[in-house]
Amino acid sequence: MEFGLMMFATDYAIRVDDLAREAESRGFESLWLPEHTHIPASRRSPWPGGPELPKEYWHTHDPFVALALAAAATQRLKIATGICLLIERDTITTAKQVASLDVLSGGRLIFGIGGGWNAEEMENHGTEFRSRWRRLREQVAALKLIWTEDEPEFHGEFIDFDPIWSWPKPLQKPHPPILLGGHSPQVLRRVATYCDGWMPIAARADSLAQDVATLRRLADEAGRDPASISLSIFGAPPDPARLAAFREVGARRCILGLPSSPRDEILRLLDRYQAAVAEARG
């Protein structure tokens, strides 16, 4: 099992290139950055994590810009969106960004995506909350065509374009792994249908063993090898026993969360996390 790190890369936290170097030097496999282009000041949509939305949600850097900086500062560290709000992005532009970053990083990109929770935020981008999952599925299908075909075209409910030329193609073939975040029977079915991995949040993973069994069954029903669909635990705690338990359930990766804090605090936490990981590995 591999171990990654996640942090809201903000304008007041440790620089992301500094964090990337420190993570790689301590043996972490990957660095995951989430995104929010903005937060509507109305605050009508409730945050799933509690009553008060942390300020990092409206201070975070663009993930593709920040991950490019992380890739340039490292040699082996995988760089990952965790998660990219694909439903708020232009599909063709995102295809170009993902492919460019995968090529320039030497094939180190992991593409974590999700449907989002803030209805007003996505509406500002022209996406309706109720149709976001249908849009997401179309976008993933269109992205795969752009990444793998010389003259892709797509005609759907939300995405529509005649044959186009778009290079570079991703270095990873057929494309960087696509991991979907979320928790519901519908999310498991989506993962089994059109994604390469599932990324549940650790705090909501009480029925993880049962969910993994369901995912494997759905993958088999979809004609896919269940072993080809990875499990990455998002926001895993630095608790050796919990980390070991996730490994027993079949997790390929645990992603430990870091606060958006200055360098000195982050370095202390990285040392603590490194010790917890070593103990979990035995």
Biggest beta sheet summary? 8 strands, parallel, barrel
Q: What is the helix fraction of residues, given as a range? A: 25-40%
Strand order of the largest sheet: 1-2-3-4-7-8-9-10
Radius of gyration: 18 Å
Question: Which structural class do the helices and strands define?
Answer: alpha/beta
Give the rounded overall mean pLDDT: 97
Low-confidence stretches: none
Per DSSP E runs of 2 or more residues, the count of β-strands stands at: 10
DSSP strand content = 15-25%
Order of helices and strands: EHEHEHEHHEEEHEHEHEH
Q: Span from first to last CA? A: 12 Å
Number of helices: 9
Shape: globular
Features:
9 helices; two-stranded antiparallel sheet; 282 residues; alpha/beta; eight-stranded parallel beta barrel
Describe the structure.
The chain is built from 9 helices and 10 strands. The model has no long low-confidence stretch (mean pLDDT 97). It is globular and about 50 Å long. α1 packs across α2, α2 (63-72) packs parallel to α3 and α6 (185-194) packs across α7 (208-221). α6 links the parallel β7 (178-181) and β8. An 8-stranded parallel β-barrel has the order 1-2-3-4-7-8-9-10, surrounded by 6 helices. Strands 5-6 form a two-stranded antiparallel sheet. 42% of the residues are buried. With 282 residues, it is α/β, with parallel strands linked by helices.
